[in-house]
């Protein structure tokens, strides 16, 4: 079987599936943007291409996103033509359609089976848009713009043979017309790497934190409202007063990944420091540690020394970091939002709180930090759930491989 992966930032969600198919004896090729060197994956031939033009000046604001995706789709299309002319005819194409790359592949390989990775379908209500009144108000014009964000996705789905989504809730964001074609298969968690370790340590400012210390952890790609950074920071004055020995470790880069920058040009990190700072004593402020981005092994060590891990999110794509925290046996306090409710049952394998309730969050974290038996109960139950339903080697990867092979046989 010949398999083509298409992702603007390969390997991304395909970092395990692509080499696994290659190891099984299939010919695997990946198409990706040239802007950065992709990670080397054994057995996978990576073909890069470049976008040669930018968006048009003066284009209608609602149409700009679609034009950008057409430009990317054309660049991928031309690279695909070169691959075809060199004799590569894939049986299966597995593509992430989110940036437009898969739009025109059907015209290059009309007989190939196309499977799409369905990460998220934008909606003007019932999901991230308008969820947080502090960051967005959905006017009629904004709802119209959001509708057009899905134009390329709808075209891609119309030309696909099958699709998969990592969670049931993410699949549910797609129109009902397409849902019957979407298999729910998570990317998988390496539960051997993300595993409890009573002897774990984490280096911080010249000392080693361990499971004997009280460590509150918060992890996000960027310090922005989509992942509740503003709510978490507002919880810290009450939390640090209630837990005088707690160290708060925050992972995430300054800026935004999913939302839009603040209109005043100030980063959310700076804005929250200015808002929360006056409510903190000097000793309390010294126990808040912004670590920026950290290497993956250091991220895992952070989870393994965590006393309580906090995860907050809008109704949006579920973060791998939450499942890795569960796999690591963390005691978790998380937002009571739809993506999280799919993986955490409040009171059984974690504690859910209202996303916007900063004081309630502080109280829930403080209570859990003081309750070692409940920490251990939550952590053990969370790990059992991940091993049972999301383990990479025994659950996710076999299902993904079977999905690709079934697609080839259709």
Automatic annotation (TrEMBL):
Gene3D superfamilies: Glycogen Phosphorylase B (3.40.50.2000). InterPro entries: Glyco_trans_1, Glyco_trans_4. Residues 25-193, 212-385 form the Glycosyl transferase family domain. GO terms for molecular function: glycosyltransferase activity. Keywords: Transferase. PANTHER family: BLL3647 PROTEIN, GLYCOSYLTRANSFERASE. This is Glycosyltransferase involved in cell wall biosynthesis. It comes from Phreatobacter oligotrophus.
């Amino acid at each position: 079987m010949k398999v083509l992966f298409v992702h603007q930032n390969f390997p991304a969600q395909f970092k395990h599936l692509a080499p696994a198919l290659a190891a099984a004896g299939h010919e695997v090729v990946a198409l990706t943007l040239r802007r950065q060197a992709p990670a080397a994956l054994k057995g996978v031939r990576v073909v890069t291409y470049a976008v040669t033009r930018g968006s048009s000046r003066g284009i209608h604001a609602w149409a700009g996103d679609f034009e950008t995706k057409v430009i990317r789709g054309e660049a991928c299309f031309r690279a695909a033509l070169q691959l075809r002319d060199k004799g590569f005819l894939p049986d299966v194409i597995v593509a992430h359609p989110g940036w437009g790359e898969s739009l025109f592949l059907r015209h290059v390989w009309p007989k190939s089976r196309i499977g799409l990775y369905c990460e998220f379908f934008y909606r003007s209500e019932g999901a991230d848009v308008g969820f947080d009144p502090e960051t967005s108000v959905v006017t009629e014009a904004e709802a119209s713009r959001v509708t057009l964000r899905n134009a390329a996705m709808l075209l891609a789905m119309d030309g696909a043979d099958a699709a998969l989504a990592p969670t049931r809730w993410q699949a549910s964001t797609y129109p009902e017309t397409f849902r019957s074609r979407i298999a729910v298969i998570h990317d998988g968690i390496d539960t051997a790497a993300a595993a409890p370790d009573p002897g774990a340590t984490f280096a911080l400012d010249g000392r080693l934190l361990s499971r004997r210390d009280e460590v509150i952890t918060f992890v996000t790609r960027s310090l922005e409202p989509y992942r509740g950074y503003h709510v978490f920071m507002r919880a810290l004055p009450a939390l640090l007063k209630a837990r005088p020995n707690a160290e708060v470790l925050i992972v995430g880069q300054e800026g935004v990944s999913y939302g839009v920058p603040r209109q005043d040009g100030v980063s959310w990190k700076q804005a929250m420091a200015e808002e929360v700072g006056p409510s903190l004593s000097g000793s309390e402020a010294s126990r808040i540690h912004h670590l920026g981005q950290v290497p993956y092994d250091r991220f895992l060590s952070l989870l393994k020394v965590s006393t309580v891990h906090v995860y907050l999110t809008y109704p949006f794509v579920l973060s791998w970091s939450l499942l890795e925290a569960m796999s690591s046996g963390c005691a978790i306090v998380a937002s009571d939002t739809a993506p999280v409710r799919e993986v955490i049952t409040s009171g059984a394998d974690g504690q859910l709180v209202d996303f916007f309730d900063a004081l309630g969050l502080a109280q829930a974290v403080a209570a859990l930090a003081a309750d070692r038996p409940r920490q251990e109960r939550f952590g053990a139950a969370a790990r059992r759930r991940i091993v049972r339903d999301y383990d990479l080697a025994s659950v996710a990867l076999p299902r993904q491989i079977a999905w690709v092979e079934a697609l080839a046989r259709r």
